[in-house]
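Hello again, I could really use a second opinion on something today. My current little project is about how a certain protein chain folds up. You're getting the sequence in one-letter code plus the fold written as tokens. Here's the protein in full, and shout if anything looks odd to you:
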Amino acid sequence: MDLLDDTVPGIGTYEDFNTIDWVREKSKDRDRHREIANKSKQSTVALLFSISDAFSGWLLMLLIGLMSGALAGGIDIAAHWMTDLKEGVCLNGFWFNHEHCCWASNETTFQERDKCPQWKSWAELMVGVSEGPGLYVVNYFMYVCWALLFAFLAVILVRAFAPYACGSGIPEIKTILSGFIIRGYLGKWTLIIKTITLVLAVSSGLSLGKEGPLVHVACCCANILCHFFTKYRRNEAKKREVLSAASAVGVSVAFGAPIGGVLFSLEEVSYYFPLKTLWRSFFAALVAAFTLRSINPFGNSRLVLFYVEFHTPWHLLELIPFVLLGIFGGLWGAFFIRANIAWCRLRKNTSLGHYPVLEVVVVTLLTALLAFPIEYTKMSSSELISELFNDCGLLDSSKLCGYTSNSGSTSGSVNATAANGLGARLAGPGLYTAMWQLALALVLKMVFTVVTFGMKVPSGLFIPSMAVGAIAGRLLGVCMEQLAIRHHERDIFRGWCSPGADCITPGLYAMVGAAACLGGVTRMTVSLVVIMFELTGGLEYIVPLMAAAMTSKWVADALGRESIYEAHIRLNGYPFLEAKEEFRHKTLATDVMRPRRGDPPVSVLTESGMTVEEVERLIADTTYSGFPVVISQQSPRLVGFVLRRDLVISLENARRHQEGVVSMSPILFTECDPPMSPSAPPAVKLRSILDLSPFTVTVHTAMEIVVDIFRKLGLRQCLKSHLIELIIKKKVNIEEHYWNL
């Protein structure tokens, strides 16, 4: 088969909702490389072309990193501003968010750094009320109205312009990287609408994050930029190498974790990840992180999202509560997956799925109404996680730092008074208030995350899962802290508390809990630990993170093997062969091949003896994606395999451009022309589109071996040698999943 022969446009391409042939695509790339290498020895121009071809991959990675980093920086800045817009506006300039507005004020104190005369709440602007119940009611009303407006705009834009812009995007990215084609999913309209609606959805206050959708955004950038490079535009396997690198870029800009992004792509989403893709992923993630750092969207001159500085070392016995957090994370992950899939199945199979706009509006209304009265649900999830990770300092005014000394004096900050010579921090009224509010916030976060993920707006899962774990971890951390302080004289806690130092760091428990819950939902391990220490800068706490991540995965796997992304892949019916899934059935290839006993014989083409009319009638009467070619109907020995799309395009091209082709013209797949009558119409020669080496197995091949062959070689179909029977990779129609809005 002459794979370099592209004289007919469309030959070698694939239809929508079909699987690519990895073997064919790799063979095309090898032949292309061989041709370039041969020509480079003949002239200087060809040598320069060979060098530019080798350099084009690195140039593409550079462009993907720059574009994705710039978009992520813009999304972060816009989301922060619009989130604060729900509470008020800056008089110095409406484009300033709350933090930036108060930075320029000379009347801001450190204890009340979020209050300044330049920032006005909506109640102060609209009715001139600065205190009392009127202030609360007006701000409550405006908060709900802004949330509804942002969510409504997001779902309307998705519905009208880009149905593929909804959801996380990671299940579909995994499916696309495995070889499936979904036209438009990584297109320019999807990129534009996803970028805009992601800002709107995050700003609405829904229990979702922007980290998962940023992977989708980065892959859209990669797909669009691939069209400017011929070797990636015309080869689906090469394009998927670029998309694997783009997945790493997405996590890099989402968390400021370039190394974790590369490991995430390798561990979680990639289907084919050669060594050169690893280096290019690392380079692209580096460029994206540098671009994001240059934009400085967080305003702290750091790349990491939740920078922590813990000064108290952890103790060996603390591994017990860390493991308990891992167990909680595994239980939460298993519960969330089952509950969310049940809710999504209900949405898909009932009339609820016909009203996506109403669903988004109702969920947003309930979320806003219940979130505003509680301090820890009113703030954004990222801000909540940052506060939970924070270790109380001398000037912290948060309720989480509402401690009191043994002498009974109360302070909103950490008191310097030592109990029995120890830097003890006994819980005060402020901390007790924060604890019950956090417990209530934990329940609300869990419920709303289950309902929100999967709605027709961009919705990520990383930050909500981390928020659930951080709340649970902080609650456990405070309990352990108070237990150690009140019983510091006991043997088990002896040595934990030292003069002038804290006994336990509750923020560390929040960090470990966040990792445990995220691991329970996504089943990440290595990449999760790396992302967490890149995210927080807490390099010395790798062991607690590893213990929690592994425990979380073990517990979650015991209750269900699928991650949330694999569960959604199965729910949507994508043709995805999970490498981690074991094939337990003791069957043979003959048990699943088509046709079975009693079925009509499989439709085949003969290498000669068929006419254009007969082939066109066969194409019209069947829906197969390809046809085996045999010697003859009497001698059905396999010659090769031809794809339906290539056959249709070739016949249309022959009728349009080849003189004398009529319905009675013979179709030839042979290498040599058979003898023909001089009056016969000219033959249509199609040997160039024939795959002469299709993969074949015997009838006695074990089915588990066949499944491994499909996984590792990326086959579209497999034929039984000699007699014609087929095993084909499942093809599904998923248009209704997105267009039934």
